[in-house]
Amino acid sequence: MPETAATATAATATATAAAAVGSTPAGTVIAESATARGRRARIALRALQVLLALFYAIPSALPKLIGHASAAESFERLGWGSVGMYTIGVLELAGAIALLIPVLQSVAAMALSALMVGAFIVQIAVFDGQYAATPLILIVPLALIAWARRGHNAELLRLLRRGA
Q: I want to staple 71 with a disulfide (CB 3.0 to 4.6 A). Which of 43, 49, 63, 140 is the partner?
């Protein structure tokens, strides 16, 4: 459908007004601003993603994937055995990798948050809350990443629809 002159003028006026007041158009992620402050925020967010990815890959997923005795003991206590241990390890490793892939960052952060809700429930129900604060603490930066990178969700949907 051809764009009318009025529609084009309205779109131009909206973009100009948004630029004049220093705000971002709808759908633009604040952390991707071109200002120096925006660049610093983007770098800090990326560093946080790398740190979380390293945490989920090495001290969290790796012991589960290699069948370390402490991980195996915990999953036996849960009654999930090695299948549960390897499944959680693979999910954590996949989430860690996805945190580093731009189109998957927001979804990965949401998925890891859901995994942390489950970990919190398990800590309370099975392990008497000994380490229940850890999953809750990890949800905070994951929620920040999910929110800040939410603009990539539309791109992911476009890719999924194109492939279907």
A: 63
- 27 Rama sector, left if φ>0, alpha if ψ -120 to 50, beta otherwise: left
pTM: 0.76
Q: State the amino acid at position 145 in one-letter form.
A: I
Both tokens of 17, joined, read: 């007004």
Amino acid at 128: D
Q: Please give the Cα distance from 158 to 63 (Å, whole number).
A: 36
| Of 113, 90, 109, nearest in space to 153 by CA | 109
Burial of residue 151 (CB within 10 Å: 0-12, 13-18, 19+) is middle
* φ/ψ of residue 67, rounded to 5: 70, 40
39-57 per-residue burial string, b: 16 or more CB within 10 A, e: under 16: eebbeebeebbeebbebbb
